[in-house]
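[job 0417] fold request received: Phasin family protein
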Amino acid sequence: MFNFDDANRKSKEAVDTALRNYSDTARGFQAIAAEAAEYSKKSFQDAVTHFETLAGAKSFEAAFELQTNYVKSSYERFVSETTKLGEMYADLAKSAYRPYEAPIAAAVARTTKSPQPSAPAAA
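[job 0417] inference complete; emitting structure tokens
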């Protein structure tokens, strides 16, 4: 028999879970945006400093060495930052999925139960 109290409780639990999940996801995206903005700011500042230093180079060889070192360190920082952002996105996806993991697993288990073998049809 249908119980309205149980249905109401389950509905409230589902809404609470969705709101908590939304809040956690929003915080995760804010952290990612803050990290990306900080990296962009630092990268721009490093580029400005590099070009000021490059403008004061006394020879072509010195300028070439400065440029080579800048490109190498800039690339290393970029790889490090993209790895960090990738990990942040992966953690965000895991935390967003966590509240739904058990209900989905239970639903999959119910739907994938092997059917009873049927008796062969008489010929």
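[job 0417] notes: The chain has a mean pLDDT of 88. Residues 4-101 form one domain.
[job 0417] exit 0
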